[in-house]
Write a structure and sequence with these properties.
- With 350 residues, the protein is α/β, with parallel strands linked by helices.
- The protein contains 14 helices and eight strands.
- Helix 3 packs antiparallel against helix 5 and helix 11 (240-252) crosses helix 12 (256-277).
- Strands 1, 2, 3, 4, 5, 6, 7 and 8 form an eight-stranded mixed beta sheet that branches.
- The chain has helices spanning 5-9, 18-29, 55-67, 82-92, 96-105, 114-118, 126-137, 142-147, 173-183, 212-217, 240-252, 256-277, 307-326, 331-334, and strands at residues 44-48, 76-80, 151-158, 163-167, 194-196, 199-202, 222-226, 287-291.
């Protein structure tokens, strides 16, 4: 981590950003989805990025939102990949518990194994992730998600239509689980395609990289976007991994690889736009506030297996969200005067 003193002293977002203001108002008035205060006509969306093990960042931000009393401040939640799984746990309640999935249950060769990929298998074992972790070890209360007052929208890539589908009309527990699995079907790391409702499916971020766009498309007037890469506007470009993924996707469906590269370029443009949107001086509605790790933070790798780095990223992300929603200076986090302390709890599953 680093950065010049001047850069570190510059506010990263407007402390009275319209997105922060409306969720604070809703918390203060204790309004609930479907029963908002008279005059509150806003549609507030929560957009949650994943990114494999980077999902520990958005999971921790969601935990902070829950702990600070903002669970009822949103009208809809939009997630893709591990961000969709995080969103489901958020709507089910008790978010700090599943945050530990990343550093307790996924940091092993059982889940991520590149050697397995070289032998013709899958690098990511989604059967383990969804069949054991999410089902048994730290079970997701699917029924609570289905019954939640806030609607969950899961982004899934429709391979043959080369488009992003936003799924929210889940018929039952099995349908919701299938949607989460399809949204996490990461190209290359998991071979082939998933099957969802009879169509070929892949990770929800393949052709729409950042889910805030889906929230805006769905008519949200205010969007709190949780990103898992550090705040570096338009950093990077197309690399070898992007070009390899392009070729891989073209073999699955002609045109899908090109759409993927277009989404990567759009993400780079979006990062510039999201940086500008943090300052509301010249912003017009709809309002978007994107919160992400600090510019000087190290980006969590999609396949990170070191528990101590994941815990550190979780603590930083939780603290950052706390600073944002409670109007505390982010320099408290940067100076070490404010930090999150992980909880210990006993879970008896007998």
């Amino acid at each position: 981590m680093g950065g010049s003193p001047d850069a570190m002293a510059t506010p990263l977002w407007d402390a009275e950003h319209p997105v922060l203001e409306i969720i604070r108002q809703r918390r203060a008035s204790r309004s609930r989805p479907g029963a908002r205060d008279p005059g509150d006509t806003a549609k507030v969306g929560l957009a949650v990025e994943g990114g494999g093990m980077r999902g520990v960042v958005s999971a921790s931000m969601l935990a902070a939102l829950e702990d600070q009393g903002f669970s009822d401040a949103f009208d809809a939640v939009y997630g893709c990949s591990s961000g969709a799984v995080n969103s489901a746990y958020f709507l089910a309640g008790g978010t700090w518990y599943p945050v530990s999935i990343y550093y307790d249950d996924l940091t092993s060769r059982r889940f991520i194994d590149f050697a397995r990929g070289l032998r013709g298998g899958n690098i990511l074992d989604l059967d383990y992730a969804f069949g054991e972790v999410v089902e048994i070890i730290k079970p997701l209360a699917y029924d609570r998600v289905l019954a939640a007052d806030v609607q969950l929208h899961i982004a899934i890539t429709d391979v043959d239509a080369i488009s992003t589908r936003l799924i929210s009309d889940f018929t039952d527990r099995a349908d919701l689980k299938a949607a989460l699995l399809a949204s996490a079907w990461l190209p290359i790391a998991v071979r082939g395609t998933a099957q969802f409702r009879g169509w070929r499916a892949l990770d929800g971020g393949v052709v729409t990289a950042l889910p805030f766009r889906l929230a805006l498309r769905d008519g949200c007037t205010h969007v709190l976007s949780l990103s898992t890469r550090p705040m570096r506007s338009g950093n990077g470009g197309l690399g070898l991994q992007h070009r390899y993924t392009h070729r891989y996707l073209e073999k699955i469906k002609e045109g899908l690889g090109a759409a993927y590269l277009a989404s990567v370029r759009q993400r780079l443009r979006d990062q510039v736009d999201l940086t500008a949107r943090r300052d509301t001086a010249s912003q017009l509605p709809p309002y978007v506030l994107d919160l992400a790790p600090l510019p000087e933070d190290t980006e969590v790798k999609r396949h990170e297996l070191r528990s101590h780095l994941l815990i550190s990223a979780a603590r930083r992300a939780y603290s950052l969200m706390y600073c944002a929603v409670e109007g505390r200076p982010v320099d408290l986090l940067r100076s070490g005067r404010l930090h999150a302390v992980p909880r210990l709890m006993v879970v008896d599953q007998r």
